[in-house]
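Before our next group meeting I need something from you. Please put the record directly below this note.
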Amino acid sequence: MNETRETTLAGESISAAVILIGGYIAIQMISDIAATKAIVLGPLTMDGGIIYSLTFTWRDLIHKRLGIQAARATILLAAVINVVMTLYLWLVVQLPPTADYAAIGGQEAWAFIFGLEGMLPRIVFASIVAEVLAELTDTEVYRLWVTRRTRALPQWMRVLVSNAVSIPLDSALFVVIAFAGVLSAQELTNMFASNIVTKGVLSLASVWLIYLVRERAVSSAREPLA
């Protein structure tokens, strides 16, 4: 009976890990591609990778369920995968297009977005720098929260506190690295402010996600076990 229960729990843990880590990487990749387009939403100027905002809370889910080492590893893994994606798409740019595809401007459009001198490599570079620094900062703030007496406070507070530190850092790094020289100083300032507003709203809207997973830190003796 105990063996069956342990097998079930192990299966649930593996499923949770696959969903959490796979979901984080998927959001990162989709966001990087969508961020190649600068958009305007009313008074807001921003990139199209709006769903990237969810990665901060999603990282907290990984930290809570799988532990700090898994959170750090996932951040670095996502960075590596985005680099591989960029290199592969660049390789596709180098492959000869069909005559019909080239005639309608497909090759030029593809090269503008995915070529090494196009938007995606710069977006990915900006994303990796911002992601790694901001998400690792988020990790440390979250770790300090759960290893101190503040752990007794509501879980949504740990999410908001860690996001409040990492979101401005991520926004500043990404906007400057990705769009400096492409957008005017005014547009850069507007984009930075827009990112703070958008990410802050989505952070508030997604804070409830932290209650979807059980707290079971498996990688650090200093972190609490469920």
The CA atoms of residues 145 and 151 lie 6 Å apart. The first helix runs from residue 2 to 34.
